[in-house]
Design a protein that fits this description.
The structure holds 2 protein chains of 2 kinds. By secondary structure, chain A is an alpha+beta fold. A 6-stranded mixed beta barrel of chain A has the order 2-3-8-5-7-6, surrounded by 4 helices. A two-stranded antiparallel ribbon of chain A has the order 11-12. In chain A, helix 1 crosses helix 13. The longest helix of chain A is centred in the N-terminal third of the chain and has 41 residues. The relative contact order of chain A is 0.18. Chain B is an alpha/beta fold. Chain B has a domain of about 160 residues: Rossmann fold (3-Layer(aba) Sandwich). Chain B contains 7 helices and 10 strands. In chain B, the strands form 2 sheets. A 6-stranded mixed beta sheet of chain B has the order 6-7-8-3-9-10, sandwiched between helices. In chain B, helix 3 packs across helix 4, helix 3 runs parallel beside helix 5 and helix 5 runs parallel beside helix 6. Classes of the chains: A alpha+beta, B alpha/beta. Chains A and B meet through helix 1, helix 12, helix 13 and helix 16 of A and helix 2 and helix 3 of B. Bound molecules: adenosine-5'-triphosphate (ATP) and magnesium ion. The site of magnesium ion (MG) has 3 residues of chain B, from helix 1. Chain B: Belongs to the ABC transporter superfamily. Macrolide exporter (TC 3.A.1.122) family. Chain B: It comes from Maribacter polysiphoniae. Chain B: This is ABC transporter ATP-binding protein.
Chain lengths: ~400, ~230
């Protein structure tokens, strides 16, 4: 019977090829979609960690709630030295943060003002790489400010334009300072570009009237993500009155984005499997109907229904057995190739980059997932063969033989 | 006295009972003993195929019973019936007898394989049978590579492979020329003598009728005559 089933699938070569190729395409597309979304996911995480949040951030717990610059961490220098001395940590930086208004001659907008050490942020978030026009901040140019491209457009300003920042200092007095735009940056996260502006830490500290030992945020970049929990604990011991959070806690929306992408992935995979189902039901049904007389004869000479059923299932199984490895191979090649050269999604990236996605995606997939996909296609094709096989069972041998 | 092998009682079959009833077979009694060589004749539409199908358990009668070798097959559940057919009845149909993807040898061996007969014995019996039907040189040909007559000979060999007590054949020679017909009939008659297998076959062909030792004539689903004769 195994032999009959095997030979049966080669009887109508073109039809078998249709089934095989739909399985190949199903497996391939499944692999591609999963690896693509995995690449997207990784890309998104890396983008968020290395360009925005870092692995760990420490704040004054009240700062998190009230967002007021007067809730600080101190003594910053001591903490920094101790963190920098730890060899699990790649880099550390501290910032002063204030919420305020930026006004150009034409209009004004709410902003989050970061007082930074320009050199530290080169290592920490690669901020200098994002500068598109003008120059990055440098020590000495006291009134320089770095603003996002989107904000620049909104305020209708260019490098060298003058802007005024207005905010409240730690004594709750309203203060303002005149700045000159040094550069315009564009990050991968457009929505943040409209809000975040960078000035020198020394300058902002002076305006806020903070002490030199105070800061609002300490960001830590690790050498190896597996050290996350250990370093978190170490930092918590080091800054007992600070609140230590990792990137997952800092960006709950990241989880939501990933989840909604997972949903799309499931839907797409479902559509592929559905198409596969219809393809197989259709072709196997045709192959059963074409062989009504032969199947009737098989029943007449003593092949019982269970065996007929098994035979049809086996035929489908063999087709899948031929198709899946081909699909796996094709999928693996595709993932390897694009995993190296990357896929440019800048066509769609205007929308995506506002969520913090970069425009190059490097698909990747675990070995385990390859087999899950192949297995799912196998299950799907066997499930879809059930209906045609049942149809074959309902044949009545005498009627089947009578039919021409 | 010889043993009764086929016993049909009050056998009737009505198609489309609820719309336009067709009484294909009405109240047929047939009694056939072991080793008989019987032709079932009658005009087209007289119910020959219907009767053969009911005797072979391929079709359920509307009423009446069929007893084959003391087993009332009309009362067997489906899977038991299929099993009974496998072990006790050989079928030869007008066409589509063989599995197209298997060679002559494999086709004949197929029912033996279903019966789980060990490979060596299977091989021996298959070669022997194909030799008896004169196809020892076509062992590895597929049905598509055989002539109609050769295909029917393979079908007869297949029908006999499981050493059934009964061979039922529905117009086995309908698609054959006269030479192949005579040849097939001779083979059937020979196997009937040598193996004591009971043959019941339907036919239109007068030359085939002449070879039978008993002729049952069916008209409008009823037995019109049932005569013994000396085959020519
Ligand atoms: N499945 C069916 N549904 C309805 N009527 C049927 C069916 N099968 C056969 N019949 C009718 O039953 C009658 C007997 O048919 P059957 O095939 O047994 O005749 P037959 O003697 O074998 O004819 P032939 O010599 O042409 O093969 C015919 O009138 C036929 O139309
Ligand atoms: Mg007929």
């Amino acid at each position: 019977m195994f032999q009959i089933a095997w030979r049966n699938i080669w009887r109508n070569k073109s039809r078998s090829l249709v089934v095989i190729s739909s399985i190949v395409i199903g497996v391939w597309a499944g692999i591609f979609i999963l690896s693509f979304s995995w690449g997207l996911y990784q890309n998104n995480i890396n983008e968020t960690i290395f360009k925005q949040l870092s692995h760990i951030q420490i704040h004054n717990p009240k700062f998190n709630v009230e967002n007021d610059s007067k809730y600080t961490l101190s003594p910053t220098d001591t903490i920094m030295t101790q963190l920098q001395a730890d060899d699990r940590i790649a880099s550390v930086s501290n910032r002063i943060i204030s919420n305020g208004m930026i006004s150009s001659p034409t209009t004004a907008s709410g902003v989050k003002i970061y007082g930074i050490d320009p050199l530290a942020e080169v290592k920490q978030i690669g901020l200098d790489n994002n500068v598109k026009k003008g120059a990055y901040l440098s020590a000495g140019k006291e009134n320089a400010i770095l603003i996002g491209e989107k904000l620049a457009k909104k305020l209708k300003i260019k490098p060298k334009s003058k802007v005024v920042l207005t905010f409240t200092n730690v004594k709750s007095e309203i203060v303002s300072g005149a700045f000159r735009v040094a550069g315009v940056y564009r990050s991968k996260n457009i929505s943040l570009d409209e809000v975040n502006v960078y000035v020198l830490k020394t300058q902002l500290r002076k305006l806020l009237e903070l002490k030199p030992t105070e800061s609002n945020e300490i960001a830590i970049l690790l050498k190896d993500e597996s050290q996350l929990d250990a370093v978190k604990k170490y930092s918590a011991d080091l800054v007992p009155d600070g609140k230590v959070e990792d990137w997952k806690e800092l960006s709950p929306e990241l989880g939501m984005i990933i989840e909604s992408f997972n949903l799309y992935t499931y839907i797409l995979t479902g559509i592929i499997l559905l198409a596969l189902t219809f393809g197989i039901i259709n072709t196997m049904l045709m192959s059963v109907l074409e062989r009504i007389r032969e199947l009737g004869m098989l029943m007449a000479i003593g092949l019982n229904k269970r065996k007929i059923f098994i035979m049809i299932m086996l035929e489908t199984f063999y087709l899948t057995l031929v198709g899946s490895p081909l699909g796996l191979l094709l999928g693996w090649v595709t993932v390897s190739v694009f995993g190296n050269i990357g896929i440019d999604i800048s066509m769609f990236s205007e929308g995506l980059s506002s969520y913090g996605f970069s425009s190059m995606i490097y698909p990747a997939l675990d070995n385990q997932n390859y087999f899950i996909i192949a297995f799912m296609c196998l299950i799907t094709s066997l499930l879809s063969a059930i209906y045609p096989a049942l149809k074959a069972l309902r044949l009545n041998p005498s009627e089947a033989i009578r039919k021409i | 006295m010889a043993k009764t092998i086929i016993d049909a009682h009050n056998l009737s079959k009505t198609y489309n009972a609820d719309t336009v009833p067709v009484k294909a077979v009405q109240d047929v009694h047939i009694h056939i003993e072991e080793g008989e060589f019987v032709a079932l004749v009658g005009p087209s539409g007289s119910g020959k195929s219907t009767l053969l199908n009911m005797i072979g358990g391929l079709d359920e009668p509307t009423s009446g019973s069929v007893v084959l070798d003391q087993v009332e097959i009309t009362k067997l559940p489906e899977n038991k019936l299929i099993d009974f057919r496998l072990h006790n009845i050989g079928f030869v149909f007008q066409s589509y007898n063989l599995i197209p993807v298997l060679t002559a040898k494999e086709n004949v061996g197929f029912v033996l394989q279903l019966q789980k007969i060990p490979k060596e014995e299977r091989e021996k019996r298959v070669l022997n049978l194909l030799h008896q039907v004169g196809l020892e040189d076509k062992l590895n040909s597929r049905p598509g590579e055989l002539s109609g007559g050769q295909q029917q000979r393979v079908a007869v060999a297949r029908a006999l492979a499981s050493k059934p007590k009964i061979v039922l054949a529905d117009e086995p020679t309908a698609n054959l020329d006269s030479k192949s017909t005579a040849n097939l009939l001779d083979i059937m008659a020979k196997l009937n003598k040598e193996e004591k297998t009971t043959f019941l076959f339907s036919t239109h062909d007068i030359r085939v009728i002449q070879k039978a030792r008993r002729v049952i004539t069916l008209v409008d689903g009823k037995v019109e005559s049932d005569v013994q004769q000396t085959p020519k």
